[in-house]
Amino acid sequence: MQSPINLWGKRLVLGVTGSIAAYKAVGLLRVLAREGAAVSVIMTQAATKFVTPLTFEVLSGRRVATDLFESHEEMAHLALSEQAHAIIVAPATANFMAKAALGLAGDLLSTMLLNARCPVIVAPAMDGDMWTHPTVVQHVQALRARGVVVLDPEVGPLASGQIAQGRLPAESRILDAVHASLISQRDWQGQRVLVSAGPTQEPIDPVRFISNRSSGKMGYAIAEAARDRGAEVILVTGPSALTPPPRVTTVPVNTASEMSDALNRHFPTATILIMAAAVADFRPKMTAGQKLKKQGKPELVLELEATPDILAMLSARRTSQIVIGFAAETEQVLSHAKDKLRGKGLDLIIANDVSRAGGGFGSDDNAVVILSASGEQKVLGLMPKRRLADEILTAVQELCLFPPRRESFVE
Ligand code: C5P
């Protein structure tokens, strides 16, 4: 049965391998695109003998990658698998499944699979004798044991003239499998997640302010990841150049005080607070009503006062909410983070060394260490912030003890 959810906002990779059924992947691409998915097609060299990359390129509106060594652009295609919500290989040949089962990475599609962390759906098509060959049976078993969804091919007339099991599964079955795998990721359904992101701006006068280098990328990535996993998300964001994520309630604020008001309003109905904002610690004690004039002054002394610690305040007011903070540090990262975890009464703190090259403020990547109130520690190495966001959500599940709600796949 076809699931009611559509694929709006989903990033999919469609791998096409060298079977006569490759032409059917064109129809599949159209259906996936019609449901709103952004589909990137990867073809093996053999697949290009059956259908031209141009066909897929026109229908997907994206360049089709075929060769691991063609150009440096292929590296960008490898990143696709990191960002994909699902990878679908249709049709999948016996040769492809053997490579995937053994972890061989001699071509782009196989390499992508090794890189993937999302659900993988394989729709085989081959001759009947090949499908029942013990080697193929073994490879299918190995892939299934690893969590890959390998659909059974259908019985019918094959290119060889044989009537046997080997036909590419019907489009509707492949689509159902895609839906099912995406639904099974909706393990945050029922959660109401309040996320803060970005810097705050504390006005000195009508044209000047004190702020920091936060881009908002980490908080936005967490909001998107929670949304994609089925949570209702409210994102309270300081000034950021990023586009508000679709299907997330975004509340823009400027100052720490405005951020505090917005978070206070939404906190009572939230189940989880993830405080990724870089709230200014100090603000000018007085904000000038008019632009301050130089008037030949050799110096200007600004008197600052501490902003309220929003996180500590909310944590103290919590009823049943899980409360998570960030600690952006430049030295003694773990010991400072532990102090904040205790001091602010948090369930988890996500510590990152913002002085480290390749991560931190403004970067697309980040590496963090997650510390829990009960003393567990989880190290997450340098990776794209969107993927890190998913890892953080999974760690929140594991460490804060609400068991992942996974629905099993039903073919
Ligand atoms: O104490 P520090 O600013 O390093 O703590 C960082 C954590 O506390 C972050 O989660 C940040 O969003 C939060 N914070 C806050 N209110 C402040 C300062 C920081 O909620 N005034």
Layout: helices, strands, pairs:
Layout: E1 11-16, H1 24-34, E2 38-43, H2 53-60, H3 73-83, E3 86-92, H4 94-102, H5 108-115, E4 120-124, H6 128-131, H7 134-145, E5 149-150, E6 154-157, E7 163-167, H8 171-183, E8 192-197, E9 202-205, E10 208-210, H9 217-228, E11 232-237, E12 249-252, H10 256-266, E13 272-275, E14 282-284, E15 304-306, H11 310-316, E16 322-329, H12 333-343, E17 348-353, E18 365-372, E19 377-384, H13 385-399
Parallel strand pairs: 1-2, 1-3, 3-4, 4-5, 8-11, 8-13, 11-12, 13-16, 16-17
Antiparallel strand pairs: 6-7, 9-10, 14-15, 17-18, 18-19
Helix pairs in contact: 1-2, 3-5, 4-7, 9-13
Summarize the structure.
This protein is α/β, with parallel strands linked by helices and 411 residues long. Helices cover 32% and strands 24% of the residues.
Write up this protein.
By secondary structure, the chain is of the alpha/beta class. The protein folds into two domains: 11-182, Rossmann fold, CATH 3.40.50.1950; 192-399, 3-Layer(aba) Sandwich (Rossmann fold). It contains 13 helices and 19 strands. The protein has helices spanning 24-34, 53-60, 73-83, 94-102, 108-115, 128-131, 134-145, 171-183, 217-228, 256-266, 310-316, 333-343, 385-399; strands at residues 11-16, 38-43, 86-92, 120-124, 149-150, 154-157, 163-167, 192-197, 202-205, 208-210, 232-237, 249-252, 272-275, 282-284, 304-306, 322-329, 348-353, 365-372, 377-384. It has an eight-stranded mixed β-sheet with strand order 12-11-8-13-16-17-18-19, with helices on both faces. Strand 6 and strand 7 (163-167) form a beta hairpin. Helix 1 (24-34) packs parallel to helix 2 and helix 4 crosses helix 7 (134-145). The radius of gyration is 25 Å and the shape is elongated. Residues 403-411 have low confidence and may be disordered. Residues 256, 275, 277, 279, 281, 307, 309-311, 325-327, 340 line the site of cytidine-5'-monophosphate.
